[in-house]
Amino acid sequence: MRSARRAAIWVACLLAVSGAASAQDLSPFLQVSPSVLVYLGQDGDRANAGIIRTPLGYVLVDAGETPADSERLRRALLPSRLDVRYLILTEPRPDRSLGAFLFSPPAVLIAHAATRAALAEADPRAHAALAAARSPDAGEALRGYRMVLPDLTFTDALTLFLGGVEVRVLHLPEARTQGDAAVWLPQERILFGGGAVKFRRHLDLGDGGSGGVLTALDRLAALAPRVVVPGRGPVGGPEDLGALRQYVLDLRAEVRRLRAAGHDLAGTLRQARLPAYDAWAGGEALPRTLRRIYRELAGP
User: Fold this and answer.
1) pTM score
2) Who contacts 239 (Cβ-Cβ below 8 Å, separation ≥6)?
3) Domain CATH for 74
4) Structural domains counted in the chain
5) Distance between CA 266 and CA 252 in Å, rounded?
6) Rounded to an integer, what distance in angstroms lies between the CA atom of residue 259 and that of residue 266?
7) What is the pLDDT of residues 1-29, one digit of tens each?
């Protein structure tokens, strides 16, 4: 009873967001357990982020789509006496990492070794320009922007133990990037899928491949999660992982069908028909994904 009361007080304080009380101010935050909140990206188009409360401080999963989102997360935590101890980046793309400078230091930044390498090679000015172009509200929050590199890296998996709370970080090789990661809370069976997992949105395979995504989805499904937080889209469950897996299989089947019919890449892009997914958001990514799968299935 006492722990439930503490959790309720934490949520009430956290959702105060620096004194703001309107429904619009509170709407981005979704409580999925007494100790876990999800910051939902605007209209499902922006990246989601996570807030994990532990007795020793907060663990954040990704920094939000833009520094404006990161600033909102930071302000939301101000009423609490706990510090942000760790920020976990699930991939190197700016929509996960750009706002890290608002938390680190003092927060320890965690990412896969490949994510750190990619960030070290990135042009900070290009990242900032991309955020400013994508989100007009990012301008003020970008003041003082600097590239922050991860302090702690891993290759396969990393586990944090924070006052009895276990947080596992798992590598998902060759999904979207070489450094994709998921965050698993085994005690609550809550999974943050990171950039490799999107619900009711078309995937952008980036530098990865459909085979890597399928391997990642099988690994994540084997965890038997109760709640699944995608990198973008609404919070779901294991059935949504299954739907995403079927989507990838359907894309591969359609590309195989058209290749068998003699279509080249251009013909495949013109003739591909996937009516079951016409209502999914992010359709602009579909041609890139089909192109990636076509080349993947064509072999070296």
Assistant:
1) 0.88
2) none
3) 3.60.15.10
4) 1
5) 16
6) 11
7) 334 344 444 455 455 433 443 444 556 88
